[in-house]
Amino acid sequence: MLAYPFDFHFTSAIVSRVPASLKDAALCQRDIREVINIEKARKQHQDYISILRKLGLDVIELPADESLPEGVFVEDTAVICDGIALICRPGLPGRIKEVDIIRTILRREGLGIVDIKDPLATIDGGDVLFTGREFFVGLSKTTNLAGAKAVASAFPEYPVTLLRVKKGAHLKNFVSMVGIDTMAIGGSDIAKDLLRQMEEMSEYKSYKIITLRDDPAANCLWVNETVFHLPIDHRYGESIRILTNRLGPTVSHGELLNSEFAKIDCVLSSRCLLFNRP
User: According to its UniProt record, which residues of this chain constitute the active site (predicted)?
Assistant: First the structure.
């Protein structure tokens, strides 16, 4: 088992470049105000990858695959803990090839692979929040009960708590870890309901909660002692200022742009899959 609680130090990350087809993906077929600027998205993603490398991570960078418009969102493909990789089962059939690619890479990197046997199970990694002590799994449009049970089966040493997400978005669109036993969570009614569920059902009762007015600001990337968040001069600047003030002066933090990906409700953490080589 990992050091308890896990300190979110990682050796490696998988990322994938941005395909031009992202702009026309099924994910984009909704009422959005702006079309994704692919070149701008690629620049934001390259900066993101550069930051991961500066943190000392060995970054495995996959080429863009135009047949996989959502392939850049690698977080959805697996849940990794203690050297075990639970290979997710996406609800969208068009994403099956994504998990096949990730399975091959993680096996090559020496991780133990767990495949979901239930043909009715669906789960995206963006619906799974590991706190370092336990798992929260959001039951959403993309993750069902059978998928959540697969998490409990793959990681029996950790408690698994199921949360009902009242909107189609992933669980991590509303909450993320930003420190040891410390969560950032949004201020919407959906986020407040998730917090209520966590407080009622979690086995650990001493999490520090940083509540932010804006849900998008609550998704941060905490890796190797640094918390990455949206820019402070962003439209969610007030929430970011609250976050950084609550984290305190001793916590290293930095900014990452996500404006193009935010147009399709995709958050900072969705663009990398973090793990430790055995």
Answer: 170 (proton donor), 272 (nucleophile)
Q: At the top level of CATH, which class does the domain 12-275 belong to? A: alpha beta
pLDDT in tens, the chain (278 residues): 555 689 999 999 999 999 999 987 645 555 555 789 999 999 999 999 999 999 999 999 999 999 999 999 999 999 999 999 999 999 888 899 999 999 999 999 999 999 999 999 999 999 999 999 999 999 999 999 999 999 999 999 999 999 999 887 899 999 999 999 999 999 999 999 999 999 999 989 999 999 999 999 999 999 999 999 999 987 899 999 999 999 999 999 999 999 999 988 889 999 999 999 98
* Residue 200 contacts residue 242 (beta carbons within 8 Å): no
Per the CB < 8 A criterion, the answer to whether 170 and 197 are in contact is: no
8 A C-beta contact, residue 149 and residue 171:
no
> Please, what is the Cα angle at 195 between 194 and 199, to 5 degrees?
120
d(CA 278, CA 11): 10
> For the chain, how big is the Rg over CA atoms in Å?
17
State the pTM of this model: 0.95
Within 10 A of 208 (CB to CB), how many other CB atoms are there?
A: 12
Q: Which residue has the tokens 């949206």?
A: 230
As annotated, the active-site residues are: 170, 272
Beta strands across the sheet bearing 252-255: 221-223, 226-229, 252-255
The domain segmentation of the chain, as residue ranges, is 12-275
